[in-house]
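Before a colleague's protein record goes any further, I have to sign it off. Thanks in advance; the entry in question is below:
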Amino acid sequence: MGDQNKNVPRLRFPGYTDAWVERTFFDNIKNIIDFRGRTPKKLGMNWSDTGYLALSALNVKNGYIDPEADAHYGNQELYDTWMTGKELHKNQVLFTTEAPMGNVAQVPDNKKYILSQRVIAFDVKEDKIAEDFLATILRSPKTFNELSALSSGGTAKGVSQKILARMKIVVPNSLDEQIKIGSSLSLFDKIIDLHQEELLKLKNLKKSYLGKMFPKNGSDIPELRFPGYTDAWVKCEFATFIERINISSDSDLIPKVEFEDIKSGMGYLNKDISRKFDDRKGTLFQPKDILFGKLRPYLKNWLFPDFTGVALGDFWVFRALNSNPEFAYVLIQSPKFQAIANDTAGTKMPRSDWKIVSNSEFWMPSIKEQTKIGEFFKHLDNLITVNERELNKLKELKKSYLKNMFV
């Protein structure tokens, strides 16, 4: 354990005991590449469809470059005019000055990039600070909060070089300690990125299956189905296979569920509500009922509970009627149901219309095929949930490191 008053972090690598030193931010910087307020277009030059990616504030995320976010490219002529003498290099630190402010990444490779609006690049004094460490300290909550307090603007805050000149940072005097901290947290970022990529793949996979495993375009069979099932699906009104439950309860012995308790679009609780007891009145639900948020249905507040509880607020509680509950839960997530549920009344507070939903027709397979589909999506949901929770744990662990490994 360290003493914060002596510029020693709470958590550090073995063998390092010297107090950290305070410097102005620019004591560590050799050069800043900054094209603020200028663009190639303003200088009479045009973007290309291919070539060298122009890094704007939209491309620079926290820890990585997203080429799809703002896909502008420059050709060789533009690059030579714009970047000669200001070339970026691998691991150079990038910082977004506004819209959004405070994202930090490093140039990922030795490819040529064009620096565009609202992004600056730092060349470090190599005898003062390591690039990985600078990127890490700029991403720390303490630095972000300090820059936010110093920055100009209202909701759209911005950071100028004058603001950076006023900022002080506390760093290890040892470059070796800096490198260890920076490289370890950079590795942590890579692990988080891998988990994010895996989670995105699973979510996209589910979205694809939801589009392909339900009939569309007037067909009575889906594009994709399990082997051994060939029968046509049957068209049924929603109210013939789903019962809407309207049993009220104000029991203070049953946990309550609100919109804020549900992870939007994911269908799981974001906190422990097992002892969330009070006497507010809502709709009683049982295990394997379906909670569907009818207020602003595009927010996708839905839940397939395994416990008895009370739904508070603008929920519909559905119960499978002559249908498989797991399949019914998948069906409310399907593109067709979502389109119908979002045919809403009201502007500021739109709500799904029960008359429209209940009278709408959906294609239904046999109970055996329903069960198969329900089990498949249940397994996929479990994979997504486990991955997202693991990702959240990693992010919280990183926050703890950022808090305790810096002064």
The first strand starts at residue 21 and ends at 24. The chain is about 35% helix and 20% strand. The radius of gyration is 27 Å. The CA atoms of residues 37 and 106 lie 22 Å apart.
